[in-house]
Write a structure and sequence with these properties.
binds zinc ion, 14 helices, 11 strands, TIM Barrel, 44% helix
Length: 387
C-alpha cells in the first residue's frame, strides 16, 4: 500500500513538474495576441522619422507576469529585450500584477472571486510563498527585473532615479543595444494593508503604482469593482507616502470618485499608464474629459493603450485617442501606454511601433508632436518625478 502511495506521489510530482514547464507558455501564447485587419504600409518618410527618434518609451507592459526569459526572442506575445532593441526602444515600464479575479471584466468584479494569479503561480512552479502572499508575488516580479541588470543582460538598465535615466540616455547614444526598464504595480492590494510594504517595495525598485486593479481593495474603489467608492483613510496615507517617497501615482483602473479624491490630495503630477478616452470609445475602462483635464493640470500624462477595450482595435483608433487628448489638453500630455503582454489583444507587437508613427503622420501630427508622443514626454516627466 505504501509503495502504491509513493508511486502515485511520484507521478503527481512529475506531472506537476511537466505542467510548470508547459502551462505558462501555452497561456502566454493564447492570451497575448496580435490581431489586425487594417492594411499596413510603412512609407520611407515614416521609416526615416522613426529611425531618427532619440527616445522611445512606453508606460505599460505586463511581461513579468509570464514565465519568460526576457533576453530570449519569442515568436509570440508582444515584447522581449531583442524585440525592444529591434524597435529601438529606450525605456519600457514593466508593471506587476498580483491578483486577477475569475471572469474579469470592465464593469464589475468582486475581490472575493477566484484568483487566477494564484493558479498561475502554482502552475508556474513559483515557490509556495507566492501562492499565498500578494506582497511576495510583487517582490518576486520586481527582483526578476532587477536580476536582468548586469547578471543576465549587460545592456539592460533598471531605471530607479534621474541619474539612472541620464545614464541610460548617454549609454544608448554610444551603444544602441542599451535598453531600460522601470517598475510599476497594478493594484496596491499587494501592500496587504501595510504602509511599511510600500517602503519595502520602493526599495525593490518600484517607482510607479496604480492604487487599484480590477476590484476594490484597502485603498479604495476600482473602476471595475463593486463599490465605486473613493479613497479610504488608509488609501490617503498611501498617497501621501507615495508623494513623499517619489512613487508615481498611476490612475489606470481607479474609480472615477477615487480619481477626484487622489487629485484633491496629491502634491505631485499623476499619470494614467494605459487607458482609452471616453471621447472616442465610451467604456468604463476609459477616462472622461473632466479627468483628462484635471490630470493634465497637474502636469501629468495620459498613456494611450493599444488593447481592445481602450480602443476599437486598429492602429487608427489608437491615434484617434491620442489626437483627442492632444486637442483637449495639449500634446505634452500624450504618451504610449500599450498594455503589451497584459493578457491583451493588440494590433501590433513592440516591433510594430513604426506603424504608429506612420498613422500619426497620416493623421497630420507634426514631427515635434510625434517625438513627444513616442517618448520625449515620458522622458521629461520622469526627469522631473524620479528621485
Ligand atoms: Zn491594466
Amino acid at each position: 500500500m505504501k509503495k502504491i502511495f509513493r508511486y502515485a506521489l511520484a507521478v503527481v510530482l512529475i506531472l506537476y513538474f511537466i505542467a510548470t514547464l508547459l502551462v505558462s507558455p501555452i497561456l502566454d501564447k493564447q492570451m497575448n495576441l496580435v490581431e489586425y485587419n487594417d492594411p499596413r504600409v510603412l512609407g520611407d518618410e515614416a521609416k526615416e522619422l522613426y529611425s531618427s527618434l532619440e527616445f522611445i518609451a512606453d508606460l505599460h507592459c505586463d511581461a513579468l507576469l509570464w514565465d519568460r526569459d526576457l533576453t530570449k526572442r519569442l515568436d509570440y506575445a508582444h515584447l522581449d529585450f531583442p524585440r525592444m532593441r529591434q524597435a529601438k526602444m529606450s525605456l519600457q515600464a514593466f508593471t506587476i500584477v498580483t491578483k486577477s479575479p475569475k471572469g474579469q471584466n470592465f464593469k464589475s468584479n468582486s475581490a472575493d472571486a477566484f484568483d487566477k494569479i494564484t493558479m498561475l503561480n502554482f502552475v508556474q512552479g513559483r515557490f509556495p510563498d507566492k501562492w499565498f502572499s500578494l506582497y511576495k508575488r510583487a517582490e518576486y516580479q520586481a527582483r526578476a527585473l532587477q536580476n536582468y541588470q548586469g547578471k543576465n543582460d549587460s545592456k539592460f538598465i533598471l531605471v530607479k532615479s534621474r541619474q539612472d535615466l541620464k545614464n541610460l540616455i548617454n549609454l544608448k547614444i554610444a551603444d544602441p543595444e542599451v535598453i531600460g526598464g522601470f517598475l510599476g504595480i497594478e493594484g496596491a492590494h499587494c501592500l496587504e494593508g501595510k504602509l511599511e510594504n510600500l517602503q519595502k517595495i520602493y526599495y525593490e525598485g518600484v517607482r510607479m503604482l496604480a492604487p487599484t486593479h480590477f476590484f476594490d481593495n484597502e485603498i479604495g474603489g476600482s473602476a471595475h469593482g463593486l463599490s465605486g467608492e473613493g479613497l479610504t483613510d488608509f488609501g490617503g496615507e498611501v498617497i501621501h507616502e507615495m508623494n513623499r517617497l517619489g512613487i508615481i501615482i498611476d490612475l489606470a483602473h481607479v474609480s472615477p470618485k477615487m480619481i477626484d479624491d487622489i487629485l484633491d490630495i496629491s502634491n505631485k503630477p499623476v499619470l494614467v499608464s494605459h487607458t482609452g478616452v471616453k471621447g472616442t470609445k465610451d467604456s468604463p475602462r476609459n477616462i472622461s474629459d473632466r479627468h483628462i483635464k484635471r490630470i493634465a493640470a497637474t502636469g501629468g500624462l495620459i498613456g494611450i493603450g493599444f488593447f481592445k477595450g481602450a480602443i476599437k482595435g486598429e492602429i487608427k483608433d489608437i491615434v484617434e485617442a491620442m489626437k483627442y487628448v492632444r486637442d483637449l489638453v495639449g500634446i505634452e500630455h500624450v504618451a504610449l501606454g500599450s498594455d503589451f503582454d497584459g493578457a491583451a489583444t493588440t494590433p501590433i507587437d513592440v516591433t510594430g511601433l513604426p506603424f504608429i508613427v506612420q498613422e500619426l503622420m497620416d493623421q497630420g501630427f507634426s514631427e515635434v508632436e510625434i517625438r513627444a508622443i513616442m517618448g520625449e514626454n515620458v522622458k521629461r516627466f520622469l526627469m522631473e518625478q524620479l528621485p
